[in-house]
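Fold sample X.
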Amino acid sequence: MTESLQSPAEPLKFAYWVPNVSGGLVVSTIEQRTDWGYDYNKTLARLAEDNGFEYALSQVRYIASYGAAYQHESTSISLAIALATERLKVIAAVHPGLWQPGVLAKLVASADVMTGGRMAINVVSGWFKDEFTKLGEPWLEHGERYRRSEEFIRYVREIWTSEHAEFGGDFYRLHDFDLKPKPVEVPGRPHPEIFMGGNSTDARGMGGRVADWYFMNGNTPEGIQEQIRDVSDVAQVHGRTVRFGVNGFVVARDTEAEARDVLREIIDKADREAVEGFGSAVKQAGQSTGDKKGMWQDSEFADLVQYNDGFRTGLIGTPEQIAERMLEYKRRGANLILCGFLHYHEDVEYFGRHVLPVVREMEAAELERVHA
């Protein structure tokens, strides 16, 4: 078996969850000085790119659910954020089944031209049945959702890179199509990057076969390493390489006690009804897999208060503790940390001022040891 280990010479990359959905990044009644509106997010994007963040991931919700009453659509706010910044790369989460892939590919290609090559997509196979059925779209069985997503990715990649695009699948077809304008030609990037996530066997196989990046829910370093190994094994068979991102909720404070107190308050003030409703919905999605292996299947109540298991990554404590934890994920093969925060403006600035410099110092020291 192969293992895709992160090179010590390559710095960790950082992304942040765009709070384009109301309610913040934790399902809790704790005060969150975070807003879902555009003006707040425009300021946040500029802060983020000035504090070490390379990517911004816009989540996708279509209807009010589990504490998220309002939502800005992901592709539109991603483009708006990119146009408000100079360097930040934006990732828009998109659902096959709710997007026709050629239309989505056209939108992203145009947005990529407008932003100088800073657009990407995160293909989400879907866990929330109501978003499909209330829009009049069929809800597919788990494996079929991933099969559709794989075709979606192959179609989009083909239309972005071919002058006479052809694709024939069970869900999508493409006939001698020449998309113009094509996305921007960026060195080392043949087309806008394609992210996806998951934990199931279906997701791991799909990630190895077609994804550029594979996002993982929060987990221990050992749990992350296992997923990286599985996806990399599939990728190797297909002559590919995949890069990996880990979700984590960051509570960085001057002392560990302060950080732990914040985490305790978040969980103590959890919106129990919303957390339990979310937990029931996502566990149902994973239990529909053949091997009962999927995202959130071993998540406990406290884990689900941060809806991508961000607490499990353990980025709670002092800047030094968090930096060391991040480097442990890098040693296991992670290329990127996807961060959520409680009070975004303040916490992103604190991250850039106090956490990121320690990460870079530790990376430099580790590189020196490797070459000693």
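Fold sample Y, listed below.
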Amino acid sequence: MTDASIQQAGFDGEAQFGDYFALLKPRVMTLVVFTALVGLLAAPGAVHPFVAFCAILFIAVGGGASGALNMWWDADIDAVMTRTRRRPIPSGRVTGDEALAIGLFLSGFSVVFLGLATNWVAGGLLAFTIFFYVAIYTMWLKRWTPQNIVIGGAAGAFPPMIGWAAATGGISVESVLMFCLTFMWTPPHFWALALFMRKDYDHAGVPMLTVTHGRRSTRNHILVYTLLLAALAIATAFTSVGGPIYLVVALVLNVLFVKGAVDIWRRDEDASEADNFKAEKAFFKLSLLYLFAHFGAILIEAALTRLGFAGLGLGVWA
């Protein structure tokens, strides 16, 4: 970043704590922490509260480290996108070198201390997640293929597996199911955003599906992935992490989600432009509730099991 670009961004003083914290992508970290916590608490066996706290803390730090490294690498495209140009680096409040140093330090710190606090399977999974998000998604897939979100979505799907591994020392069918739920949710979530933010990705040269194949193709993809996600989400109710409460949540939300996807699929560009992408924005907002509600239901089912109500479950695949 040049001095001129910093001045244009309105940099007028030293960075504050909030600027460095913003490097960690706290909104994304919220999802990482919650899904990791569900994975940890849904796992069989007891985990000491202090160990559980340390596990979630270090997973959160690892997620933040990924965010800092992502901002360091993507500073050039962040500067030209309306949604990201006020981030700490393009706005000039934090330098790229500072973000790189923070990201690398927190990556090593989080992996080592998660391994020491819990086990090295969890530590190894966290290390792989950081590597996948930074090297595979950010540095390679994001600028190379319209399938960037599809493949790169794996990075955001690992936290519940890490939480499960922190509690059990291994990987199981249940943790893989939670991974799959997040993995399949990611494409329709981000493609909905891309529909009403296409100009941002176009200006930045990011090959999102909306840019390379157009909005019509993106709408088709959203519908297909939403239908597949709905089938997976509802089927999860009949596994050992599901149950009647989860089933009710899954049925209600997936009916709404599929309806939203169908609404998007039926629309043409004139209709979308006319109401400023009302349906697309509504679908995107619903997608945020969608994942939190599903994992919240898994957490409730786990709590009922620990309280001795496992007999109420639907876990025919358990």
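Sample Y note: The chain has 16 helices and no strands.
Also: The radius of gyration is 20 Å.
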